[in-house]
Amino acid sequence: MSKISKASLHIITSFLFLFVAGFTQVQAQDGKALFNANCASCHKIDKDLTGPALLDVEKRWPSKDLLKTWIKNWPDAVKTGDPYAVKIKDWSPAAMTSFNSLQDADIEAILTYIRDWKPATPAPAAGATAAAKSEGDNSLLFGVITLVLALIGLILLQVNSNLRKLADEKDGLPVAASVPFYKNKTYIALVTVLLFVVAGVYISKGAVGLGRSKDYQPEQPIYYSHKVHAGVNQINCLYCHGGAQEGKHANIPSVNVCMNCHLAINEYKGEPLYTADGKEVNGTNEIKKLYEYAGFTPGQAWDPSKAKPIEWIKIHNLPDHVYFNHAQHVKAGQVACQTCHGEIQNMGEVKQFSDPSMGWCINCHRETKVQFKDNGFYSIYEKFHEDMKNGKMDSVTVEMIGGTECQKCHY
Description:
The chain is mostly helical. The protein has helices spanning 2-38, 57-60, 64-72, 74-79, 83-88, 104-116, 126-136, 139-170, 185-208, 226-232, 237-240, 243-246, 255-262, 283-294, 326-332, 337-341, 358-367, 379-389; strands spanning 273-274, 280-281.
């Protein structure tokens, strides 16, 4: 009986250990997601950004409760008179954002992620990646082999014809006069058909590709590396492109959004930057270009009214007859940015990754599952139906269902 009890206890203990380990891993994953969504735009774990580095942040505060108060609403923490809270509020010109929506469990998950964080291992060099890709692409080799085999086939046909003539001469049979290659009707017909097929393929591809710009990669007025911002610094896409979750367009961030971080960051100290053709980029000089657009002089107070928009070159274009809404895809469709834009977090200069043809979009629509339940889009219509049934209202105007929004008519 004791043996059975010990065995049962051992099984239960192992199960609890695995459960706790699995739960801890889920919590860590949630903490990373919460950190990227709320903190990464201003903080890094191991380096100062707009806000201070968060490594060992719990050790710098007298209590975790005060730290949670600071995160939820920093003025409340300053009111306590704690010296560290009073000191840290003036750490950066940009004020700390209040996160009243974060629950204690969310903050605990973020702090757990920060405690367990380890530096990322360096990614393979761009040259090595390109070499690996080129090694995996054998289309050129297949093309050369096909041409060689075709040439061998033509030579064998000619040899066969000559051998047949020699055999006929030996048997005393009449031999037809030799016809030059360029006058042979069979060869002429074969070449003509081949040319028509090749021309038809290229003309069809050209016609289908009209208006598309896959792999289009223009040179921008400022070298902006998504790899540095979204990859290394883990800035959430929606921090800069907030419209992607709320409207038709993803929106290009204004200079003010850039300056939220670059008021404090005026020098680039990261890994070397290179253009698509391999030229090294001076990151600090690119920040200076941003300052010129912002009308900002380091060491002086910045007047946002002096800023002028950066003339970014648009990369992704759709025909005028195509309606595409970012919010429907990001919220209801739960489509990740990388699905259409590629591994944007690994791109230096951005290029158009996808081929937004009709077939490409339809194939995605056939496979993607929509978050149809509780997506917040149809709830307002359900409310109107209920109110009309209950006699609270007798009609619904176009304005009540968003009819005065600009994008209803102007897209």
